[in-house]
# Entry
Amino acid sequence: MSKFQVKTLSNIADVGLERLEGTHCLLNNESDLPDGVLVRSTKINNEHLTDNLMAISRAGAGVNNIPVDVCTEKGIVVFNTPGANANAVKELVLAGLMLSSRNIYSSIDFVNSLTHLEDMSDLEPFLEENKMQFKGSELAGSTLGVVGLGAIGSKVARMGVALNMNVVGYDPALSVQAAWKLPSQVHPADTLEELFKVSDYVSVHIPALESTKGIINETLFKQSKNLSLLNFARHEVVNTDDVLTYLDKNNLSNFITDFPTPKLIKRANNHKDVILLPHIGASTSQAEENCAVMAVNQLVGFLETGNIKNSINFPEVQIERTTENRITITNKNVPSMIGQIATTLGKLNLNIADMANVSRGEIAYNLIDIENNVEDEAIKAISKIENVVNVRLIK
Ligand code: MLT
# Structure
């Protein structure tokens, strides 16, 4: 069996790439027609979606750098690594809370500007005299609103409880699994408006989707008073123009974000109420390694067995391999596909030992273990069935 060609489009931690050794996958960054791609935040466009490509594995949670709809249409499976960098982001949110509550940024700037005070006898009284302008407030007892209670948001909510903050959470799509992980001290808000009304700090942890674009905007800022807003999700989810307007009106007291825009950079140069970081939420060795290992394992698992775990566009399916010949089929999610596939296999005297058929939205995916030897003619015959998107044989 020739090896699957895997190409990286971003820097992927070595500890992950080492997982390719001893598998049926080969790292080949020169390949023009890779079978699988590993990516971090690099933007993927249609040119990357070459003929052989079967899967893209994103070392991270957000997939707004990948044209997922086009991938689904072409039958390309897109994986991400939910939770693998959640702790790293949570810890940076903690830094964001501290930056916004204790004037740390202005304090550091102030001290760095005192190069003219060369004697301790001058410096010490000067600091003592001036420190009152940097008085902050404690997080304990204040209210933290968390928008989105997935892998990262739920960790941020738990951290808020541990800091003795009152924590309010909002997530209309909260899964039962995620709900179980939340401490009872996290109070649910029925609406975003309600969350913004009661919070002193709001931390946003929702994906960038068409439905979430600009969802954090003036409708919510009108509800708040001296609110510190933290965005460690994606820049698209917050309306930056509204942020700038409401910083001037004091509804917002500051904005700390991992996603700078040119307008925000201009503001940050003249005001201390905007603090910008260069998308470093997941940039820790531990998170990069966790994401790389998970992304590689998922990609190898899929290429070698057809099994799917943590895809954002394909259904989850894992069955133990029962025979030497496995066929995977992606088809449009329309009636009578299984019947047509089984009839085609039957005509070729191919006997099914085990199978799974699962669907998600517009597509369905089948894993079929065949008892006899499968030749290419079977794959060609199945490809010809109307509404079949792709077929492959794993020997
Ligand atoms: C994520 O979506 O998980 C992060 O953006 C990952 C990264 O920084 O690459």
Summary: The chain has 14 helices and 16 strands.
